[in-house]
Design goal:
With about 250 residues, the protein is of the alpha/beta class. It is built from eight helices and seven strands, in the order E-H-E-H-E-H-E-H-E-H-H-E-H-H-E. Belongs to the short-chain dehydrogenases/reductases (SDR) family.
Length: about 250
């Protein structure tokens, strides 16, 4: 198993976080799920034996205390994954948006990923190893304008800058920092969104392969990124956009 003996914290247990949690557990990791909704956490954790905690990733004290508790219980933190990307307003043209609606995903993404990365790194540095994964990524994706994503892509670009800086600062301690980048996952589009089928079709049409990544794909790539097979990769975005974004 690629992650046998590894302790992983995953912030966010929705579709993407759940897929990563299942993939990690299948590869032998001890999984700690953190999020704000216990019912969502429990639904993912039950079948895989993950441990759960209600944690607001925007709350500095809550994030630090949870990381301390995991490290004390499990003996350390090997992997930290933050897939939180909520508080975004989509479908509205930028010229019609209120400033707070545009900036909300930027603040949420930057603050939550800074806090969770910092908490994990403080435990990883003394051990001389660790992997910090974020979700999002940048690219010259023309479809982002068509989908009217508001401030979400701006948030992802800000996190990319954070990823590069963290990789530089933490590399001497053996800690790797990587972004998981997709061009959009049809399965992850909430059912409540109008035009969900149209969005899924457009996501696939924009790729070189004629299909978009699946949740299972995300889980497999996340396993690789956290494993020793990727020990030479840091400061990079792993491109699983199926060719929607070309490096």
């Amino acid at each position: 198993m690629l992650l046998s003996g590894k302790n992983a914290i995953i912030y966010g247990a929705g579709s993407i976080g759940g897929a990563i949690a299942r993939a990690y557990a299948a590869e032998g990791a001890r999984v700690f799920l953190a999020g704000r909704t216990r019912a969502t956490l429990a639904a993912v954790a039950g079948p895989i034996g993950a441990e759960i905690a209600e944690v607001d990733a925007l709350d500095e004290r809550a994030v630090d205390e949870h990381a301390d508790a995991v490290a004390a219980t499990a003996g350390g933190i090997d992997i930290s994954v933050n897939v939180i990307a909520d508080h975004d307003v989509q479908g509205t043209p930028m010229t019609d948006m209120a400033p707070d609606d545009y900036l909300s995903p930027v603040v949420t993404n930057v603050r939550s990923k800074f806090l969770t990365a910092r908490a994990a790194a403080r435990h990883m540095k003394p051990r001389g190893s660790g992997v910090i994964l974020t979700f999002g990524g940048s690219g010259d994706r023309t479809a982002s304008g068509r989908f009217r994503l508001g401030g979400l892509q701006t948030a992802f670009e800000a996190v990319e800058a954070m990823r590069r800086q963290l990789a530089t600062e933490l590399g001497p301690y053996g800690i790797r920092v990587i972004t998981l980048r997709t061009g959009g996952i049809p399965e992850a589009v909430p059912a409540r969104y109008k035009g969900r089928a149209e969005i899924a079709a457009r996501l696939a049409a924009d790729t070189a392969l004629g299909r978009a990544a699946t949740l299972a794909d995300v889980g497999r790539v996340a396993v690789f990124a956290a494993s020793d097979h990727a020990r030479s990769i840091t400061g990079a975005a792993l491109n699983m956009t199926c060719g929607a974004v070309l490096d």
